[in-house]
Amino acid sequence: MIYIIDILGTISFAISGVLVALSKRMDPFGVLIIASVTAIGGGTLRDVLVGNTPVTWMHNMTYVYVILATTIFSVVLRHKIDYLRTSLFLFDTIGIGLYTLVGIQVGMSHGLHPIICIALGTMTACFGGVIRDILCNEIPVIFRDEIYATACILGGISYFVLRKLPIEDDYVFMFSGLVVILIRLLAVRFKIKLPNLYKSEIVN
Amino acid sequence: MIYIIDILGTISFAISGVLVALSKRMDPFGVLIIASVTAIGGGTLRDVLVGNTPVTWMHNMTYVYVILATTIFSVVLRHKIDYLRTSLFLFDTIGIGLYTLVGIQVGMSHGLHPIICIALGTMTACFGGVIRDILCNEIPVIFRDEIYATACILGGISYFVLRKLPIEDDYVFMFSGLVVILIRLLAVRFKIKLPNLYKSEIVN
Amino acid sequence: MIYIIDILGTISFAISGVLVALSKRMDPFGVLIIASVTAIGGGTLRDVLVGNTPVTWMHNMTYVYVILATTIFSVVLRHKIDYLRTSLFLFDTIGIGLYTLVGIQVGMSHGLHPIICIALGTMTACFGGVIRDILCNEIPVIFRDEIYATACILGGISYFVLRKLPIEDDYVFMFSGLVVILIRLLAVRFKIKLPNLYKSEIVN
Hints:
The structure is a homotrimer.
Chain A: H1 2-23, H2 28-50, H3 56-59, H4 61-76, H5 78-83, H6 86-109, H7 114-135, H8 141-144, H9 147-163, H10 169-189
Helix pairs in contact in A: 1-2, 1-4, 1-6, 1-7, 2-4, 2-6, 2-7, 6-7, 6-9, 6-10, 7-9, 9-10
């Protein structure tokens, strides 16, 4: 289950990387690098921080092949994907829902505290996109779109709450992932933002 | 001793992170992320480079609670803290003094060469602020304020010199930390800068 | 053999770091930091990702001394080096050729798949320059100059192809390194670029 989730997240994030890289007019290798970094950046940071080395994608060639295939597929179909530009947003959102759960699982398998697990899940979900945006010279989406990391954190909390209830593990997974995705979709749809704490100052 | 120093440094850096994040009008989670990254970024890099994983703050929830409490406290009292805007500078300075020593200790406990220990101390002290500034889209303070890393390096050197003398360990600690703090305070007060080596070229 | 290559790459990259830092009017410690990061940044990322910690330069003081000596030497002779500004390009190019091979070797010694080894080689070669450029507030050369990473990847592929032939290891090394260097030199000389895939959109 967790493995399928991981692959689906990889595909979602690789597509989102390809779309951003294409919009920046990168050449084929640039597109591949951005797709890879977006797809495996968050998991790589997570693995490095918990000491899970060589990091996951070095052992398991599936990730490499999935990213390569997704990149080629997205580049070939780029004009079709472009018409569905909102799909970038959707793929990104599905990606963070799935990756949050993967990160939490890794944290739990290392016996870490739930707060740390949620931090790892949020990192796994958000960090690939942060690197993608830094490399593409955009302000990271995590800072532009305020309910991004918040959705991951709330999904993570709901995971640990639901686990205490008599619900099957697979449903707990699915539901927590949906929490992340729905919170982000609703936040964007209804323009919900967290309040600024500091409105008075003029930023130089 | 080293543990108390570490907690004090964490508080100092978390406050400095909160102040910068608030001045950038971030929402509550953004403020928490910047406070955390500032407080634990340098130590995390140090731990990853020496292979001390899972990194310190994943084992020891004290850091997490200290950062959470400091963040809430600073946000609630933000209007008071704001009047003391120079306090940002002061907290940052105390932070680098304390963290330099923590980093040196970790290097020594891994049996590394004094030069490497000083590099680790400087990294521990400076890297959290570098990430804070990159994420807040400012030029890292380490490059704006030239006696920043230099103060850490000189404090580190004085630590290894003082250790050879017949002085108690606690005093060696305190004195080396003060060296870092004083050098930075004096440099800023008297506008001391290191010389540029290359004055003739116009930077585009 | 691999060790000599590594030291030569360290010197080449340290010089390239010094030249960029000087052109940004950095003070002596800033120059040293940029030289170090350029020279060991790629190898550090590689070591962290494969779990080779404490990272190489912490064990082996040779790197530290070589970087220190190269930095002092380059700073003293900066006016001479400046006349040869194209040398920056040349040193950078030799550096990526040598480091690609070092990265591939580390990957192979961990029993990783050739694709992963090539990725590690490319990372070792390119990442130091990426950090150098980010810290100096320039667009990373890897994105400005499109045949940069591509040269490393092609050199890596030629290494794995040549290994299958009945050629001595040292020649395989030399030849693959030359492939990287020649591809980049020719690409820059004849302004060869990879095609953009997405020319129609206006980037905001």
